[in-house]
Amino acid sequence: MDDELLELQRQFEFAQQVKSSVRLSDRNVVELVQKLQELGVIDFDLLHTVTGKEYITQEQLRNEITREISKLGRVSVIDLADTIGVDLYHVEKQAQDVVLNDPGLMLVQGEIIPQSYWDSIAEEINERLQECSQIAVAELAGQLQVGSELVQSVLEPRLGTLVKARLEGGQLYTPAYVERVTAMVRGASRGIFVPSNLSALWAPLQQLVQETNGASGVAVENSFFQSIFNRLLKEEEMLGSLRAGTHWTPSAFATAQKECVDSSFSQNSYISYESMQKLGISQAVQFLQSRYPDGTPLAAVFIHSSMIEMLDSATEDAIEQNSWIDSLSVLPSSFTSQDANKMLLLCPSVQSALKAEKALILGESYVLSSGFIKGIYDQIEKEADAFSIQASTATLIHPSSKSSESTESIPANTDKGSKKKKGKSASTKAATVETVPDDEEDARPKSKRNQKKGRDSSSSQKLDSKAGGKKESVKAQESNNIIPPDEWVMKKIVDSVPEFEDDGTENPDSILKHLADHMKPMLINSLKERRKKIFTENADRMRRLIDDLQKKLDESFLNMQLYEKALDLFEDDQSTAVVLHRHLLRTTAATIADTLLHGLDIHNKMKNGTEVEESKTQDLVLLDSSERTALAKNLNGSLSKKALALVEALEGKRVDTFMVTFRDLAEESGLVLKKLDKKLERTLLHSYRKDLISQVSTESDPIALLAKVVSLLFIKIHNKALQAPGRAIAAAISHLKEKLDESAYKTLTDYQTATVTLLALMSASSGEEHDCSADRILTKRELLESQMPLLRTLVLGDSQPQQS
């Protein structure tokens, strides 16, 4: 059998060596291969070489790749393509299949590396480590021209076997080197007796290691030291606690801490968090609660229950004695007000007192009994009522103290003129003795009220509605004016409890300030209730006030219109007209203006809750210019503006301007003013004439008689009610010259001349006592008295003067 095989081999070798007589060209071969592939004889893929003259199967390509790997150990795919002569695409594809089918191979960055290669590299690294004790992985990666991650990944499974080393922080260390560094870490750590950050410890160790290794030493990473420290701690070669990986507290320090805390807490029954910080305990509350479960944590200190018992005893005594106590005064200085407040809330006596409303905590640390607070409050409440009344009436214009003498100095006003002492009106300056004195008023008798129609309360309602949108803000401002300020309240508290003055009013945490803040709302509520009561009481009084004001103005304003008509007679005589206008403004106009302003001011105060005495609403008021301005400014909104215009007109020279401003203010106030019509004018003139006749008949003063006679003559002749001052009597008599016969006119002028002479004598003798002057005055007065019947006959006798 063997011989036959040998014979066949020889024949096959001979057949191969024999050259064929028929040769195929390259083109024929290519066509033949294509034909065989079409016929399915060749059912596998064929790859061309880069020369294009050879075919190679994929299996053969893989075999050649495997052979090159076995031969070289580490081979590049690009080098394989050049060596085998096949396109790089096919080589890469088949190389991936080879690596995929062989777990001992890896394809890294275009290179095929077998595990045997890494084994040999590991052995070389191990040999180098024995020489230098440490090698950086980055250095190995640079030498092998691969990534550090790859080197680290292939070395990790070989550590302890092929590579006798420890990999830490990208460094390879020999066991002897690790033991040496471990000894350094152990010694340095055991030398620490206070809490330390391990990061600060690794720096000097690094320097020590580098000095030991010399110039060839590689810097050791902190993580290497940290891992050694963690291992030593786990093996209990060091005692202590590690927080956050780097904060090391030796057990010796922790023991000393606890002993110090125990000593302080047992002696004082409390310990402050500040002292805990100094001992190096940052989480003081958690530490103390775990060590003393029965203690109580506060804002700044940790206390034993005995501290609460001590404070409870002190506060209980203060409450029972109706007194007060500052809890901080019985606590150590390290306690804050928040601590004191929390302790007070834990005291049984304070809890029961608060529940029964027998005590109150102010400012976190002050405890005051309710009886103590009530005693102070009752006293302050009384004074606050007085303060409120004083504040609410501060702007109230009291009736002027002008005596009835001012009224009596107007000889023609009422019958009171006849009761004056003779010569009373003559005490004026000599410069005014030209005629009858300026301050003498003509008669202004009250007219009958039978023509007045009844009015309802709509005037009062209309006045109330004039405040407009500013009502609430004005009320708020008025309320603020009657609320005592904080300084006032604190002063009254100090008056009741002088010991509070030591705390001072500027300290915001003083008991004085806290007690004032507590009482202020109580005072405000009390004052508001009182004002509410006054509002209720004032409602009806306001209606009556407006009705009374309406009645007063009805008659006065009609008389004013009546007197105004008489001024038309003197429009041609400007100097006299000015005197008459000013006189009427200072007398009748001033009276009705003062009545209106005073009434509106009282109404405004009642509306704002100010208590006003009943007598103030009924008194006759005579105001000066500053008082009128003050009243006008106290009114609200448009009322104030129109009232100021009225005051300005009253100081002017024209009655018609005053009448316009007076009507505007009355209309704005909701008051209705009657217009003087013909019927009312006749009625008023008749009443005025009748009153003047009565006064002329009974007048005993020769000086006062002249003015009344002239007024009566103007009614009879011109049908006008003239109000003339003493300075205008002469001009008024001159105005009657054309309407009187010569004898009547001469009687008037002679009487007027004698009156002026008498007044001049009285003025000259004022302040002097001479018998001769007194005799002359008495003689002149007797002469005038003798002419009084003749003057009365002039206006009351049978011979009546002609009427215009």
TrEMBL record:
Residues 463-475 have a biased composition (Basic and acidic residues). Residues 681-793 form the E3 UFM1-protein ligase-like C-terminal domain. Keywords: Coiled coil, Transferase, Ubl conjugation pathway. Residues 547-676 form the E3 UFM1-protein ligase 1-like domain. Residues 400-409 have a biased composition (Low complexity). Residues 4-288 form the E3 UFM1-protein ligase 1-like N-terminal domain. The keyword Mitochondrion does not apply. It comes from the Eukaryota. Residues 532-566 form a coiled coil. Transmembrane segments: none annotated. Residues 397-483 are annotated as: Disordered. GO terms for biological process: protein ufmylation. GO terms for molecular function: UFM1 ligase activity. Belongs to the UFL1 family. This is E3 UFM1-protein ligase 1 homolog.
